[in-house]
Specification:
Elements: H1 11-38, H2 47-57, H3 59-77, H4 91-118, H5 125-147, H6 152-177
Helix pairs in contact: 1-5, 1-6, 2-4, 3-4, 3-5, 4-5, 4-6, 5-6
Subcellular location: Membrane
Keywords: Membrane, Transmembrane, Transmembrane helix
Main location: membrane
Length: 185
């Protein structure tokens, strides 16, 4: 089939994807509000200690890569794809590989954003929230993907949109507080 013969998404497919995105936005906002009002503060005053805290929290994100490797490796062990040079094709392996690729891409953005944010804020509960959202979003992305590729939209949005919000917050911090904020003390 050429690109001209491949039909675009149906109205129902678009509705499913955008509905999932809306649900992810609502859940992320709800978790942020709950964190603001209910989570205890984790105040760390020095940039150095906040960076260390943030780096240590990243171990949970590494688990999302381990999950993907397990999905792919476990499936390979059951099929002729155990030989990775084999022409054998398997949908679950393909999904696992796409999950891994997207997870690595998202980890790069999210972790850089968390590290930058930790140089501007003193309450580390926000780093913990970002880490929780990231890990749970990646798990939901994989579960949705394995059910049906369109179902990955909730987990994708739940992971990606909070990262976009922090990118914008970090840009605002650089523009309004300047890059040297907290470094001239």
């Amino acid at each position: 089939m050429s690109d001209k013969e491949i039909p675009g998404p149906t109205k129902e497919q678009k509705s499913l994807v955008f509905g999932n995105i809306k649900k992810a936005i609502i859940l992320a906002i709800a978790l942020t509000v709950l964190t603001y009002f209910l989570a205890p503060s984790i105040l760390i005053n020095t940039v150095e200690k906040r960076l260390i805290f943030t780096l240590r929290c990243q171990i949970f994100s590494v688990l999302t890569i381990m999950i993907g490797i397990q999905v792919v490796g476990g499936r390979r062990a059951e099929t002729p794809a155990m030989d990775s040079t084999s022409p054998y094709k398997d949908k679950q392996i393909e999904i696992g590989n796409k999950y891994l690729q997207n997870t690595v891409e998202q980890i790069i953005m999210n972790k850089i954003c968390q590290l930058i944010l930790s140089t501007y804020i003193v309450d580390m509960k926000w780093i913990m929230l970002m880490e929780f959202i990231f890990v749970s979003g990646r798990v939901m992305f994989l579960i949705g993907y394995l059910k049906h590729p369109l179902q990955r939209s909730f987990g994708f949005a739940f992971t990606f949109l909070p990262t976009v919000a922090v990118i914008l917050l970090n840009i605002a911090n650089v523009l309004f507080y300047k890059p040297w904020y907290g470094l001239m003390d």
